[in-house]
Amino acid sequence: MTQTPDILCIGSVLWDVIGRSDAQMRQGSDMPGRITQLPGGVALNIGMALSRFGLTPALLSAVGRDTQGDALITACKARGLITDYIYRSDDLPTDKYMAVEGANGLIAAIADAHSLEAAGDKILQPLSDGLLTSPYTGAVALDGNLTLDLLGQIAQSPLLAQADLRVAPASPGKAMRLMPFMRASRGTLYVNLEEAGLLCQTSFDSSKAAAEAMMGRGAKRVVVTSGADPTTVADKDGTITQSPPPVTVARITGAGDTFMAAHIASEINGLAAEEALRSALDAAALYVSGETTI
User: Fold this and answer.
1) Max Cα separation, the chain?
2) With 0-12 CB in 10 A as exposed, 13-18 as middle and 19+ as buried, what is 234?
3) Cα(254)–Cα(47) distance, rounded to whole angstroms?
């Protein structure tokens, strides 16, 4: 019997291939290090973190019916995630993400989420065929690896009109995919300083300025991070800005997903806005320092 989810995670579910070196790196560097392959993708990373924070997430995504896909589904189940609603494709391969990190941070990354994009609205079928309650009224974590057309459809869909939407762009290159939610004044948008700048067609020196600008352009609620600098949450009631704890950075990939998941879990569990932000910043700091897994 399928468990009842506490939250839906809609978006990329794939394999992360991460190369890490303890050395400073630049373009063309060839350094010793470690290469790992782990379950990843924004939706899955958020789901795994939510599970660690005591929630039961369900994944809505596309995974191939290949060996890599079967192994990924098994890995998701082992991490406490509901996989029953995932669209399994016979002709699309399982997606992958590849990144290289040095002591000075992320050097380069490539996200191959073409199968998710090709699957389109098939991943939403459980919301319309009765497998999930419709309209869905719970929390939804949504990532920008979906196509702009599908994200626009979700922003206007009656199936999710009553849901607590939490949206992240997945990367600066996909920041503009959040525009439908800005225009519709839907959901909580989680962006970094660069992504906020792209959405507002300018650049910002602080998360507070970025958050206020996004609100001025129609956003319902925003959370703007800025690495080790202060993070700001803004809504119709005003802004809250807090600084993350200082830590030694051991890894980058997955930090934003951990922050978003911790923030969502804190608010679902009833923490007030200031407490929820502090809890999320603390959780992200622990992850970046290498003290916790995702």
Assistant:
1) 52
2) buried
3) 12
Task: Please name which of 113, 118, 105 lies closest in space to residue 25, comparing C-alpha atoms.
Answer: 105
Count Cβ atoms within 10 A of the Cβ of residue 92 and give its class: 0-12 exposed, 13-18 middle, 19 or more buried: buried
| pTM recorded for the entire structure | 0.89
From residue 172, give the alpha-carbon distance in Å to each of 43, 178, 194, 259, 276: 16, 11, 7, 17, 25
Structure token pair of residue 29: 């560097």
User: Order of strands across the sheet with 105-112?
Assistant: 34-40, 14-20, 96-102, 105-112
Burial class (CB in 10 A: 0-12, 13-18, 19+), 272: exposed
For strand 7-10 and strand 139-143, is the pairing parallel, antiparallel, or unpaired? parallel
From its phi and psi, is residue 105 left (phi > 0), alpha (psi between -120 and 50) or beta?
Answer: left
CB 41, CB 14: distance < 8 Å: yes
Taking the alpha carbons of 76, 77, 81, 83 in that order, is the dihedral positive or negative?
positive
Joined together, the tokens standing for residue 286 give 């622990």
Tokens at 220, concatenated: 């319902």
pLDDT tens track, the chain, 294 positions: 568 899 999 999 999 999 999 999 988 899 999 999 999 988 999 999 999 999 999 999 999 999 999 999 999 999 999 999 999 999 999 999 999 999 888 899 998 889 999 999 999 999 999 899 889 999 999 998 899 999 999 999 999 999 999 999 978 888 999 999 999 999 999 999 999 999 999 999 999 999 999 999 999 999 999 999 999 999 999 999 999 998 887 777 678 889 999 999 999 999 999 999 999 999 999 998 886 665
Q: How far apart are CA 147 and CA 59, in angstroms?
A: 17
